Amino acid sequence: MINKVVSGADEAISDIENGNTLMLGGFGLCGIPENCITALVKKGVKDLTCISNNAGVDDFGIGLMLQKRQVKKMISSYVGENAEFERQLLSGELEVELIPQGTLATRCMAAGYGMPAIFTPAGVGTEVAEGKEVRNFNGKDYLMEYAFDADFAIVKAWKGDTAGNLIFRSTSRNFNPVMAMAGKITIAEVEELVEAGQLDPDHIHTPGVFVHRIFQGANYEKRIEQRTVRTKN
Amino acid sequence: MLDKDGIAKRIAREIKDGFYVNLGIGIPTLVANYIPEGINVVLQSENGLLGMGPFPFEGEEDADLINAGKQTITTLPGSSIFDSAMSFGMIRSQKIDLTILGAMEVSENGDIANWKIPGKMVKGMGGAMDLVASAKNIIVAMQHVNKAGESKLLPTCTLPLTGVNCIKKIVTELAVLDVLPGGGFKLIERAPGVSVDYIRQATTGKLFADDDVPEMSLN
């Protein structure tokens, strides 16, 4: 069994350098790699290109990296809820590429499946299509979109084992499995790390072959962005 | 004239038994409250859930269980969870029967604009471009006119597009309209108490209306 375990977030991200391209899993603040983000802020690497569906909020998630001006470019589908983001965007400090959410997920998938490009109808006839090749299949137009090329993918799972196998919980799965497959180096932080053999092979969402480093994270805040409830009556 | 709940109620009547439905943020979310009894639908949330249930009871919120609006929600018997690529796979391959979403503008040839106002902060399109490009059936829930009283049903959209030639049905506070295959809005129903002339004045795009357009029923 190949052991993928590292001591923690600091070791896991130790070779991430200025100018690298990172994929970061999560949807909103759900399923984000909290420990690695904290370690990246501490390390202070700069000029990063971050591929992530969202950009966190002002004081949590990728928002923490934005505050330290570590991000040169965001590639996302939706970036509301973040005043510092807006300030940097309007002042020209931050470059932003907005792409359709399904295109984002599928460009990750393509990278993980070893395919150079995909064809999607999303964005045909809109400004998203500018400069892109359009192909017609069976009477319908599709845009050619390239697979992402990320130096690192950083994901968060619920459980993992020493062989790097991952299980996600509920909708915190989101982009994490496709990003895990897509990084040249994939770092997984998990809420619970167990010995190989403790997880049922039938229940694995991401096979360990895609994961290069794994560690058990600490102090998960799991902040809720929109707390919506109903009352019992 | 309908309020937001009235629009949602009217749209809910378009949902058929056995439909898988994706609801956008805003008025579309309200549609879930008005699905008629005896109609079984499965709501998809594009962040990776089929079978979206109601908000959790206070104290039972789960940070790992949210919808595409990042609200805490619940699952239902028969729910399933999947990743984002699979989620848009079921959208692109038209396994989702109906998409209901909001719009800032719709044109008479079925173009929709709902993600960007140039010069203002741009938040992004989220999943809207994927949904409108692939859905076999889209209903738009929108206000017929803006706050200045200007029509949002136009000959051509003025705002950056989300999708082209994709909208077939629109429900507003004034009317139910179909977008005709050859272009133009066809008035199908009037909101209670609203005249055809009133709707005609509120519609800048080409409007086709019979003399006796029925008033919509909400029950």
Automatic annotation (TrEMBL), chain A:
Keywords in alphabetical order: Transferase
Segments forming a coiled coil: none
Domain of life, source organism: Bacteria
Keyword Protease: no
InterPro entries with a match to the protein in the record: 3-oxoacid_CoA-transf_A, CoA_trans_fam_I, CoA_transf_BS, NagB/RpiA_transferase-like
Family: Belongs to the 3-oxoacid CoA-transferase subunit A family.
Record protein name field: 3-oxoacid CoA-transferase subunit A
From TrEMBL, chain B:
Keywords assigned by UniProt, alphabetized: Transferase
Family of this protein: Belongs to the 3-oxoacid CoA-transferase subunit B family.
Pfam family membership, one: CoA_trans
Keyword Transferase: yes
Protein name: 3-oxoacid CoA-transferase subunit B
Signal peptide span: none
Keyword Transferase attributed: yes
Species this protein is from: Pedobacter gandavensis
Gene3D superfamilies: Glutaconate Coenzyme A-transferase
InterPro entries: 3-oxoacid_CoA-transf_B, CoA_trans_fam_I, CoA_transf_AS, NagB/RpiA_transferase-like
